[in-house]
């Protein structure tokens, strides 16, 4: 199955299925000498794992990571880093009645059409469970970019049509949804509970900010920084749209409004979102990802089985009401992996200072 690897110099491959024995990743190209222990990865996995927030699936996975290779005495060796996260709380029996039924909004139909076979248990490889491996790999990428002073922070900008009006990063750890607007967060929590009672789910928008990124990262044509960031985020199953900087609102601006004036102190504005001509400007990178509602809902839905016969389906099992906030570390991971890759590519032609 192709398409399981991303990156050029910093390469990440994930493997495993939702209800298989384990999921994991192989990270190749990580520089040697970086401090790395299992606890460094574990703290990122703790942010993503199920069973914590009221809006999350009650599936209880420890998400305990094991490093199998690529480190020695707490430091990376420069060789491939292999890691594994064992599945311990899969309830496959909950999916028995879905063996021959295509769930609306899921990858059941498309996987069947592509491969002629699919793992119906929790969505198999198409499950959000796979993103735990990305978060683990992203924790390693964060270590690489941290050496250059780069930080990546994601937060909840919108959920269920409720938008944060203030975006101070100081507030995002003060509520379970990691929303910078406390008043909006309270309204979001209420709407999540209302949706849960109705057997429905909610979508939202994640904003990701990158601080400390140096100018000059990204390739000028086919591997632009903004193109690679959008590709990485769109590779998350729930993401249906990505915008950078002013994004879609730039289509409603004039050139004089959209252009960022360059002054002796730097750019006066940041409508470009920290990227021009596919290359970083040195300013803050601002990205937003639109996440669709989780398709597993308790409300009756019309669908068909593999023979084309109509079926009325109500999905049972353990599911989130929204991907937010568990998607936040996944978005951070994907952005960090892209940044680590482009940083190493740039250092190949421009050595780091000092």
SSE diagram, text form:
Elements: E1 5-6, E2 11-16, E3 22-28, H1 38-48, E4 65-67, E5 71-72, E6 75-76, E7 81-86, H2 108-115, H3 131-146, E8 151-159, E9 162-163, H4 182-198, E10 204-211, H5 225-234, E11 239-244, H6 255-258, E12 262-263, E13 266-267, E14 275-276, E15 279-280, E16 285-291, E17 301-304, E18 310-313, H7 327-347
Antiparallel strand pairs: 1-2, 2-3, 3-7, 4-7, 5-6, 8-9, 8-10, 10-16, 11-16, 12-13, 14-15, 17-18
Mean pLDDT: 92
At the fourth level of CATH, the homologous superfamily is: Chorismate synthase AroC
Measured distance between first and last alpha carbons: 43 Å
Instruction: Determine the strand fraction and express it as a percent band.
Output: 15-25%
Q: Any idea what the radius of gyration is?
A: 21 Å
Write a compact overview of the structure shown:
By secondary structure, the protein is an alpha+beta fold.
How would you describe the overall organization of this protein?
- By secondary structure, the protein is of the alpha+beta class.
- The chain has one domain: Chorismate synthase AroC (Chorismate synthase, AroC fold, 4-Layer Sandwich).
- It is 25% helix and 21% strand.
- It is built from seven helices and 18 strands.
- It has helices at residues 38-48, 108-115, 131-146, 182-198, 225-234, 255-258, 327-347; strands spanning 5-6, 11-16, 22-28, 65-67, 71-72, 75-76, 81-86, 151-159, 162-163, 204-211, 239-244, 262-263, 266-267, 275-276, 279-280, 285-291, 301-304, 310-313.
- It has a five-stranded antiparallel sheet with strand order 1-2-3-7-4, covered by helices on one side. The protein has a five-stranded antiparallel sheet with strand order 9-8-10-16-11.
- Strand 14 and strand 15 (279-280) form a beta hairpin.
